UniProtKB/TrEMBL annotation:
It is a peripheral membrane protein. PROSITE patterns: ABC_TRANSPORTER_1, ABC_TRANSPORTER_2. Keywords: ATP-binding, Cell membrane, Membrane, Nucleotide-binding, Translocase, Transport. CDD domains: ABC_cobalt_CbiO_domain1. Residues 6-242 form the ABC transporter domain. It comes from Anabaena azotica FACHB-119. InterPro entries: AAA+_ATPase, ABC_transporter-like_ATP-bd, ABC_transporter-like_CS, ABC_transpr_CbiO/EcfA_su, Co_trans_ATP-bd, ECF_ABC_transporter_ATP-bd, P-loop_NTPase. Part of an ABC transporter complex. Responsible for energy coupling to the transport system. Probably part of an ABC transporter complex. Responsible for energy coupling to the transport system. It is found in: Cell membrane. This is ABC transporter ATP-binding protein.
Amino acid sequence: MQQSLLTFEQIYYTYPGAKKSALNGITLRIPQNKRCALIGKNGCGKTTLFSLANGLYKPQRGIVSWQDKPLQYDRKSLMKLRQKVGLVFQDPEQQLVASTVEEDISYGLCNFGLPIAEIQQRVSQALVEFELTELAERPVHHLSLGQKKRVSLADVMVLRPELLLLDEPTAYLDRPQSRNLMALLKKIHDSGTTIVMASHDLDLVYCWADWIFVMDEGRLILEGTPQDVFSQRDILKNLQLGLPLIYEILINEGLATEGTSLERFRQKILNIFC
Ligand SMILES: Nc1ncnc2c1ncn2[C@@H]1O[C@H](COP(=O)(O)OP(=O)(O)OP(=O)(O)O)[C@@H](O)[C@H]1O
């Protein structure tokens, strides 16, 4: 059986003062080394689940475990967890804290108390990897949104997490920036990092993910390979999610049939776009 990195078991979470719970007994296992996508309507609980994954919130009921060990919520344990589970928020403004790009990338490493030489080495490497060297001295509030998103990803990746959670990473990015981001994610995944991406872009999800979770009203409704999930048209229609346009064209136009020929098309598209 595939090893799980992070496990949510029967998780319930209600925001303070809210009438309805955001998570309603969700059980979900994040498999190691996969490119996972989390999809679902606005407000179904994706961001909340991410916030529980790195201990930002604590469930009122249920257990979140890292490699089968229940999370501990004391400061030291949470620091350790956040080195392993990196969360990149949808809005980079929520993440950027320092005045310059270089300082921002070093912020987390300083918090973790790493030796200065190692901090400098990791920051220089991140500046190169994320093509931020020319922006190193720039104030973060002078950057474009796409540049801010790149910095927020660098902030997290510099800590070398084993699991990377990305909330709507391509939201507001233009096409070239989205493609650059996907190229970066490929490198990150190839280096052994498990990725979970919450996204409303079903075409991107269809091409990129090798495992998909479908949520609704704080629960997991479906999970599986892109083929497994998108062949469940009726369930997806009831959830008002629809299908990826690429998938619909391939099937409706008779260009591919569900099964191996469809998977071949998917792999081809993946090679072109991601
Ligand atoms: N800080 C908060 N206080 C109270 N309720 C909240 C808060 N944040 C989210 N919620 C509610 O919790 C539910 C789940 O929200 P969440 O942001 O997790 O959904 P989501 O799937 O990420 O949505 P989206 O696709 O729009 O980003 C929603 O009903 C939302 O209104």
